[in-house]
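Renewal narrative, Specific Aim 1. Our central claim is that a sequence can be written position by position from structural information alone. The example that follows is taken directly from our test logs and has not been curated for this report. It begins with the structure tokens describing the chain, in the order in which they were read.
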């Protein structure tokens, strides 16, 4: 496949994931991950493997995200090798239950690493910090900014 075709396929997967989120179909959402994928959510919780990613997302879609909608605002894809790609997806979410510190409209940037499995691209790593969200990196407390920088506070 050509580089352009691979980039289009990866962008399509990201769009399909947002569509699955909006249908609250976490089986379809999780199908895009490898069996051994790592996913770190906006709260810094780590999920290991497609099964755990699906189970945890099914739970939150029965609770705080049951009426949420997710929209991809922008994407960039960079092929690192023929079988590995780095992707950033700027996202926006609405309709979630109110939690202290969360805005009605939330935005952030997901960083994803895709690997080719046969003819299919799947996600092996995904971290989704929210802009302005406090998190720890190597034990240091900081804030993720709109530019996806980590600022120490």
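The sequence written for that structure reads:
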């Amino acid at each position: 496949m050509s580089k352009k075709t691979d980039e289009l396929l990866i962008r399509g997967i990201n769009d399909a994931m947002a569509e699955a989120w909006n249908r609250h179909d976490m089986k379809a959402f999780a199908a895009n991950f490898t069996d051994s994928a790592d996913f770190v959510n906006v709260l810094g919780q780590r999920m290991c493997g497609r099964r755990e990613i699906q189970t945890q997302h099914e739970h939150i879609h029965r609770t705080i995200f049951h009426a949420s909608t997710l929209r991809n605002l922008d994407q960039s894809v960079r092929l690192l090798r023929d079988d590995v790609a780095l992707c950033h997806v700027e996202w926006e979410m609405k309709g979630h239950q109110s939690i202290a510190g969360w805005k009605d409209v939330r935005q952030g940037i997901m960083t994803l690493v895709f690997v080719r499995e046969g003819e299919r691209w799947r996600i092996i790593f995904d971290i989704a910090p929210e802009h302005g969200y406090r998190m720890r990196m190597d034990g240091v407390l900081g804030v993720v900014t709109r530019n996806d920088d980590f600022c120490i506070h």
